[in-house]
User: Fold this.
Amino acid sequence: MDDIKVLAVGGSRNIGYYASLRLLDLGATVTFLLRSPSVFNDDATIKRYVNSGKARLLKGNAHVREDVERAWTEAAKGDDNRPVDFLIFTVGGTGRFTLSKGFVISPPNLVTQALLNCLETLPTPTPKIITISSTGLTRASHKNLPLLLKPLYGYLLQVPHKDKCGAEEILAHCAGWPWEECDSPGPEILGANWKERVPDGGQLKSVVVIRPALLTDGECRADEASRNKQAYRDVAHFLVEGVIKDWDTWQGKRVSIAY
Ligand SMILES: NC(=O)c1ccc[n+]([C@@H]2O[C@H](COP(=O)([O-])OP(=O)(O)OC[C@H]3O[C@@H](n4cnc5c(N)ncnc54)[C@H](OP(=O)(O)O)[C@@H]3O)[C@@H](O)[C@H]2O)c1
Assistant:
């Protein structure tokens, strides 16, 4: 673990942040693509890792293709010639509430387009990819939600979930997973020629999608053996202790997690 190279896109807070911290603690080198690197100005732990050369903070926007390309190059740097081992993709948006549409994010295809940029600029050899999605996105999975959560997912989260469907459709195409046409968010989210921007259908085998249920900002239940609700830190725990450390078990899977 101490010589792996990681690119974190969406690592300024929550899941991506806690997963990156875990990896840094294990000795990994983590490059953060950040819209505002100043987000870590008061973060003594990250600063310590920056000073030791283990954390790299790169200013950039995942919606700008060239910025993502630079991030891959930065993440591969080092004395060795080894490529980037992992992409941890946890991009998301802070929703603004509206009466007509529930929580909206801006732009409405935030996650989909950021993911397309990451896949369009993928280096060779291809890194292992871990992305965060959500539960209850597709018609089939929405049916299986607990009754009380259905209005939340169907109304309040319809806009961010359409965006996540875009990201999931892209990954399903690249990984060769089944995907129902009725769950497609269409070209307004995906763009017209998105298939030309990503690896050919079924070619991307080293990918894991984690679909967490609703999260809180509490302590890590997995670490603390407490009765807390599932927190960002728990997803980070699973991402590192489960997925990264036991890649062969999880590779090629879409995993729903909840307590
Ligand atoms: N909260 C929940 O209950 C829950 C449940 C299931 C799934 N999820 C999903 O899981 C994912 C991760 O969630 P989270 O709570 O860990 O993180 P989050 O609060 O959604 O933050 C997302 C990250 O994406 C970054 N980002 C947004 N737009 C960007 C851009 N254009 N370029 C570069 N970075 C950008 C943000 O950076 P800035 O600092 O620049 O804003 C932030 O680091 C999200 O997609 C979220 O919707 C959340």
